Amino acid sequence: REIAAREAARAERRLRGESAGLRSRLERPERTAAEIALEPGRRVRVRSLDRDAEVVAVRDGKIEVRFGGIGMTVEREDLEPSGPAPPSAPASRRTPRTRPTGREGDDLAAGAPHELLLLGRTVDEALPEIDRFLDRAALAGRTEVRIVHGHGTGRLRTAVRGYLARHPHAAAHRPGRPEEGGDGATVVTLR
After folding, report:
1. Is the separation of the CB atoms in 67 and 82 below 8 Å?
2. Across 148-166, average pLDDT
3. What are the tens digits of pLDDT across the range 5-38?
4. Do 83 and 54 meet the contact criterion of CB atoms below 8 Å apart?
Protein backbone atom coordinates (compact mmCIF):
# COMPACT_ATOMS: atom_id res chain seq x y z
CA ARG A 1 0.00 0.00 0.00
CA GLU A 2 2.76 2.42 0.93
CA ILE A 3 4.55 1.90 -2.39
CA ALA A 4 1.32 2.34 -4.35
CA ALA A 5 0.55 5.53 -2.42
CA ARG A 6 4.02 6.92 -3.17
CA GLU A 7 3.71 6.07 -6.85
CA ALA A 8 0.27 7.67 -7.00
CA ALA A 9 1.60 10.83 -5.32
CA ARG A 10 4.54 10.94 -7.75
CA ALA A 11 2.19 10.55 -10.74
CA GLU A 12 -0.05 13.30 -9.36
CA ARG A 13 2.94 15.68 -8.97
CA ARG A 14 4.07 14.89 -12.52
CA LEU A 15 0.59 15.57 -13.92
CA ARG A 16 0.35 18.83 -11.99
CA GLY A 17 3.71 19.90 -13.41
CA GLU A 18 2.65 19.00 -16.95
CA SER A 19 -0.63 20.84 -16.45
CA ALA A 20 1.16 23.95 -15.20
CA GLY A 21 3.57 23.78 -18.14
CA LEU A 22 0.75 23.54 -20.65
CA ARG A 23 -1.13 26.37 -18.95
CA SER A 24 1.94 28.62 -19.02
CA ARG A 25 2.50 27.90 -22.73
CA LEU A 26 -1.05 28.97 -23.51
CA GLU A 27 -0.71 32.16 -21.48
CA ARG A 28 2.66 33.26 -22.94
CA PRO A 29 3.59 33.93 -26.54
CA GLU A 30 5.77 31.18 -28.01
CA ARG A 31 9.41 32.01 -28.43
CA THR A 32 11.51 29.81 -30.62
CA ALA A 33 14.46 27.98 -29.12
CA ALA A 34 16.72 29.70 -31.65
CA GLU A 35 16.01 33.05 -29.93
CA ILE A 36 17.80 31.91 -26.78
CA ALA A 37 21.56 32.33 -26.59
CA LEU A 38 22.34 29.57 -24.12
CA GLU A 39 25.53 29.67 -22.14
CA PRO A 40 26.44 28.75 -18.57
CA GLY A 41 25.03 31.24 -16.10
CA ARG A 42 22.06 32.22 -18.30
CA ARG A 43 18.69 32.40 -16.52
CA VAL A 44 15.97 30.48 -18.36
CA ARG A 45 12.41 29.34 -17.75
CA VAL A 46 11.75 25.60 -17.97
CA ARG A 47 8.30 25.59 -19.54
CA SER A 48 7.26 22.07 -18.56
CA LEU A 49 8.02 22.79 -14.89
CA ASP A 50 7.03 26.46 -15.00
CA ARG A 51 10.20 27.31 -13.03
CA ASP A 52 13.22 29.52 -13.53
CA ALA A 53 16.61 27.81 -13.66
CA GLU A 54 20.23 28.55 -14.48
CA VAL A 55 22.04 26.95 -17.41
CA VAL A 56 24.97 24.85 -16.19
CA ALA A 57 26.15 23.34 -19.49
CA VAL A 58 25.13 22.79 -23.12
CA ARG A 59 26.05 19.38 -24.55
CA ASP A 60 24.85 17.61 -27.70
CA GLY A 61 21.63 19.62 -27.94
CA LYS A 62 20.77 18.84 -24.32
CA ILE A 63 20.83 21.61 -21.76
CA GLU A 64 21.85 20.97 -18.15
CA VAL A 65 20.06 23.36 -15.78
CA ARG A 66 19.96 23.80 -12.01
CA PHE A 67 17.28 25.33 -9.83
CA GLY A 68 17.82 25.35 -6.11
CA GLY A 69 19.86 22.26 -5.34
CA ILE A 70 18.32 20.24 -8.17
CA GLY A 71 19.98 19.67 -11.53
CA MET A 72 18.42 18.14 -14.60
CA THR A 73 18.83 17.83 -18.36
CA VAL A 74 16.15 19.35 -20.59
CA GLU A 75 15.47 19.83 -24.28
CA ARG A 76 16.26 23.23 -25.78
CA GLU A 77 12.64 23.59 -26.95
CA ASP A 78 11.47 23.40 -23.33
CA LEU A 79 13.32 26.63 -22.48
CA GLU A 80 12.62 30.30 -22.89
CA PRO A 81 14.56 33.37 -21.74
CA SER A 82 13.94 34.41 -18.16
CA GLY A 83 16.44 37.18 -17.57
CA PRO A 84 19.31 39.00 -19.20
CA ALA A 85 22.24 37.04 -20.59
CA PRO A 86 25.24 36.93 -18.25
CA PRO A 87 27.90 39.52 -18.99
CA SER A 88 30.66 38.13 -21.14
CA ALA A 89 34.25 39.24 -21.41
CA PRO A 90 35.52 40.78 -24.65
CA ALA A 91 36.67 38.11 -27.10
CA SER A 92 40.34 39.09 -26.79
CA ARG A 93 40.32 38.55 -23.02
CA ARG A 94 38.53 35.19 -22.93
CA THR A 95 40.49 32.21 -21.72
CA PRO A 96 39.55 28.55 -22.14
CA ARG A 97 38.21 26.82 -19.05
CA THR A 98 40.67 24.00 -18.58
CA ARG A 99 42.77 22.78 -15.71
CA PRO A 100 46.45 23.41 -16.48
CA THR A 101 48.01 20.11 -15.44
CA GLY A 102 49.58 19.21 -18.75
CA ARG A 103 47.67 15.95 -19.24
CA GLU A 104 46.09 15.34 -22.64
CA GLY A 105 42.60 14.58 -21.30
CA ASP A 106 42.26 17.80 -19.31
CA ASP A 107 40.31 19.69 -21.98
CA LEU A 108 37.81 16.84 -22.11
CA ALA A 109 37.66 16.46 -18.32
CA ALA A 110 36.77 20.11 -17.90
CA GLY A 111 33.65 19.54 -20.01
CA ALA A 112 32.69 16.11 -18.67
CA PRO A 113 30.34 16.11 -15.69
CA HIS A 114 31.51 14.44 -12.49
CA GLU A 115 27.96 13.72 -11.31
CA LEU A 116 24.81 12.19 -12.79
CA LEU A 117 21.43 13.02 -11.24
CA LEU A 118 18.85 10.27 -11.73
CA LEU A 119 16.22 11.48 -9.26
CA GLY A 120 12.72 10.69 -10.54
CA ARG A 121 13.96 8.41 -13.32
CA THR A 122 12.79 4.85 -13.86
CA VAL A 123 15.28 2.00 -14.15
CA ASP A 124 14.64 1.81 -17.91
CA GLU A 125 15.39 5.53 -18.29
CA ALA A 126 18.40 5.50 -15.97
CA LEU A 127 20.54 2.66 -17.32
CA PRO A 128 21.17 4.15 -20.80
CA GLU A 129 21.98 7.50 -19.14
CA ILE A 130 24.51 5.78 -16.87
CA ASP A 131 26.15 4.13 -19.87
CA ARG A 132 26.51 7.47 -21.74
CA PHE A 133 27.70 9.22 -18.57
CA LEU A 134 30.39 6.63 -17.84
CA ASP A 135 31.54 6.64 -21.48
CA ARG A 136 32.00 10.43 -21.40
CA ALA A 137 33.69 10.35 -18.00
CA ALA A 138 36.11 7.58 -19.03
CA LEU A 139 36.89 9.34 -22.31
CA ALA A 140 37.63 12.52 -20.36
CA GLY A 141 40.02 10.65 -18.07
CA ARG A 142 38.00 11.03 -14.87
CA THR A 143 38.96 8.58 -12.14
CA GLU A 144 35.90 8.94 -9.92
CA VAL A 145 32.29 10.03 -10.52
CA ARG A 146 29.09 10.11 -8.50
CA ILE A 147 25.64 8.85 -9.47
CA VAL A 148 22.79 10.30 -7.41
CA HIS A 149 19.77 7.98 -7.48
CA GLY A 150 18.07 8.94 -4.23
CA HIS A 151 16.63 6.68 -1.55
CA GLY A 152 13.02 6.07 -2.65
CA THR A 153 11.96 2.43 -2.69
CA GLY A 154 15.53 1.27 -3.36
CA ARG A 155 14.65 -0.23 -6.74
CA LEU A 156 16.74 2.30 -8.70
CA ARG A 157 19.69 2.05 -6.27
CA THR A 158 19.72 -1.75 -6.58
CA ALA A 159 19.52 -1.61 -10.38
CA VAL A 160 22.27 1.04 -10.60
CA ARG A 161 24.67 -0.93 -8.41
CA GLY A 162 23.93 -4.19 -10.21
CA TYR A 163 24.56 -2.48 -13.56
CA LEU A 164 27.84 -1.00 -12.30
CA ALA A 165 29.05 -4.43 -11.15
CA ARG A 166 29.00 -5.52 -14.82
CA HIS A 167 29.98 -2.26 -16.54
CA PRO A 168 33.36 -2.28 -18.33
CA HIS A 169 34.28 1.27 -17.21
CA ALA A 170 33.53 0.67 -13.52
CA ALA A 171 36.48 -0.72 -11.58
CA ALA A 172 34.63 -0.43 -8.25
CA HIS A 173 31.69 1.34 -6.65
CA ARG A 174 30.58 2.18 -3.13
CA PRO A 175 27.73 3.97 -1.36
CA GLY A 176 28.37 7.67 -0.87
CA ARG A 177 29.72 8.97 2.43
CA PRO A 178 27.31 11.23 4.35
CA GLU A 179 28.72 14.36 2.68
CA GLU A 180 28.37 12.68 -0.74
CA GLY A 181 24.68 11.85 -0.38
CA GLY A 182 24.92 8.73 1.76
CA ASP A 183 23.10 5.66 0.45
CA GLY A 184 21.18 7.89 -1.97
CA ALA A 185 24.33 8.11 -4.11
CA THR A 186 26.90 5.70 -5.51
CA VAL A 187 30.51 6.69 -6.08
CA VAL A 188 32.16 4.92 -9.01
CA THR A 189 35.90 4.41 -9.49
CA LEU A 190 36.63 4.23 -13.22
CA ARG A 191 39.17 2.01 -14.98
Report:
1. no
2. 93
3. 888 788 777 777 766 655 555 555 444 445 567 7
4. no
pLDDT tens, position by position, 47-75:
877 788 888 888 777 788 887 667 778 88
Q: What is the mean pLDDT of the chain?
A: 76
CA pair distance 149, 153, nearest whole angstrom: 11
* CA angle (126 as vertex; 108, 97 as ends), nearest 5: 20
- Is residue 109 classed exposed, middle or buried when 0-12, 13-18 and 19+ CB atoms within 10 A define those classes? buried
- CB-count exposure of residue 131 (10 Å: 0-12, 13-18, 19+): middle
138-168: burial string, b at 16+ Cβ within 10 Å, e else:
bebebeebbbbbbeeeeebbebbbebbeebe
- pTM exceeds 0.70: no
User: Are the C-beta atoms of residues 66 and 53 closer than 8 Å to each other?
Assistant: yes
Length of the chain: 191
